[in-house]
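User: Sequence recovery, please. Input:
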């Protein structure tokens, strides 16, 4: 009864005196501006697809943000990416691995009980020193149960669990960042492929137009109205454009293969039919820089690693305190099966133990300094991740604004080039100019038309990059609730 009372009092004392050693976490100061330097384009306003955020709240985009581009083929591909992409499977497995480590660390909150039964024959040596009077052979039948429990007076176990929890949440944020990256890369490659389709159609149409021009020069030559040099010039222009049309196939094939890999398929098992779609960049709400802290999964993961590093600092400080263990052993031991389970065969021992390192040559102090330096490094990485996020948003905003203006200017250039070509063709047919003027005008028009298509591609890519920079449809509320 006295032993049981002593154990109960020890446990109560442990619960009353237990405290967590180490610094309390506070979010590091961040260089967050009040607004972005680059204002969003005039077209960026609230629409039926994008809703403005309430004051002081994150402004999440729709989870299926790609639907705002209005392309059914893209919607279908994006849905398949989440199922087949291998990088996402890796990220998900890393999260499950980190979550299992929480349970591993949490198991230290409970006692460890082990049993080690043994059966053997024993003979005592008659010549051993201080031999008792009874010397001979006998049996040894033992059934011991061992009990050990660390009293978490200083919070070591709790901090290990907290650190593992932060690591698991960071892995969940990493998984969300991987999802966003794969979704954005899929949209990016898809728009590159569709731009190649637009270039292909333009070049095919141009080849058809140049074929007619070649036939015209050949007929004029045969009729004696033009020199043979103009036929050669027209043929050169035609074959050069055919070569450019063929070369587009290389780019298109590479982007199609890239999309197949993103879907987790072999390129031989996947294809996208050529098509020219009338795509335009959607409007995207931007918000304020401070909202990025809640909307970017990579920023959330970086901060969670700061929290985990803070727990590690606390753990190195706990190492300076003694470890208190409560241990017990009980069981049965006899000389034969007949008396193994008799009441007199019982044995037990119980009591606390304390372990304190007196001298370690500076090992604990070095570990503490290492943890503090590691914390400072994760804080710097956290700040750098945040600054990079601001830069990515600013880059995308400036690209969209400038490209929007450039797109209008390029459209004017295409219209002017078309008018110029028409004039030179009429003058050539009327015998006023030679065919070199027509070829020059054709080259200028084709170059401007290809540039116009390329500007649209860059605008689509910049829209995808802006959505990615804003965190897609993610925010910190989507972090899994990990109960410890």
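Assistant: Recovered sequence (484 residues):
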């Amino acid at each position: 009864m006295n032993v049981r009372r002593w154990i109960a009092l020890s446990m109560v004392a442990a619960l009353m005196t237990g405290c967590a050693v180490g610094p309390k976490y506070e979010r590091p100061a961040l260089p967050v501006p009040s607004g972005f330097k680059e204002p969003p384009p005039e077209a960026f306003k609230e629409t039926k697809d994008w809703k403005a955020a309430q004051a002081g709240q994150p402004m999440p985009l729709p989870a299926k943000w790609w639907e705002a581009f209005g392309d059914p083929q893209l919607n279908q591909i994006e849905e398949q990416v989440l199922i087949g992409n291998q990088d996402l499977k890796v990220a998900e497995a890393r999260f499950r691995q980190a979550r299992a480590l929480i349970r591993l660390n949490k198991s230290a909150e409970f006692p460890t009980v082990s049993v080690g039964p043994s059966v053997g024959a024993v003979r005592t040596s008659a010549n051993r020193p201080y031999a008792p009077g009874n010397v001979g052979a006998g049996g040894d039948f033992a059934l011991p149960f061992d009990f050990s429990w660390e009293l978490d007076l200083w919070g070591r176990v709790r901090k290990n669990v907290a650190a593992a929890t932060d690591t698991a949440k960071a892995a969940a944020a990493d998984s969300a960042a991987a999802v966003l990256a794969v979704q954005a890369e899929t949209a990016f490659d898809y728009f590159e492929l569709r731009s190649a389709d637009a270039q292909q159609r333009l070049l095919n149409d141009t080849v058809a137009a140049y074929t007619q021009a070649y036939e015209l020069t050949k007929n004029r030559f045969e009729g004696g109205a033009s020199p043979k040099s103009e036929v050669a010039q027209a043929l050169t222009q035609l074959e050069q454009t055919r070569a450019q049309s063929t070369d587009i196939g290389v780019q298109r094939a590479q982007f199609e293969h890239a999309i197949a890999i993103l879907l987790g398929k072999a390129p031989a098992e996947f294809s996208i039919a050529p098509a020219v779609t009338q795509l335009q960049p959607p409007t995207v709400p931007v918000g304020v820089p401070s909202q990025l802290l809640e909307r970017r999964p990579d920023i959330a993961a970086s901060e969670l690693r700061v929290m985990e590093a803070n727990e590690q600092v606390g753990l190195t400080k706990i190492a300076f305190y003694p470890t208190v263990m409560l241990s017990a052993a009980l069981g049965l031991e006899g000389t034969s099966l007949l008396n193994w389970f008799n009441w007199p065969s019982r044995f037990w021992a119980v009591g606390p133990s304390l372990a304190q390192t007196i001298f370690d040559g500076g090992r604990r102090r070095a570990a503490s300094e290492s943890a503090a330096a590691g914390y400072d490094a994760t804080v710097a990485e956290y700040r750098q991740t945040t600054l990079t996020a601001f830069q990515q948003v600013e880059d995308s905003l400036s690209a969209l604004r400038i490209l929007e203006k450039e797109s209008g200017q390029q459209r004017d250039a295409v219209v002017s080039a078309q008018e110029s070509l028409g004039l030179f063709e009429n003058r050539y047919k009327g015998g006023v100019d030679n065919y070199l003027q027509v070829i020059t005008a054709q080259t200028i028009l084709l170059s401007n038309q290809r540039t116009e298509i390329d500007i649209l591609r860059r605008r689509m890519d910049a829209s995808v990059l802006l959505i990615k920079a804003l965190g897609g449809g993610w925010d910190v509320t989507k972090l899994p609730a990990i109960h410890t």
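DSSP finds nine helices and five strands in the chain.
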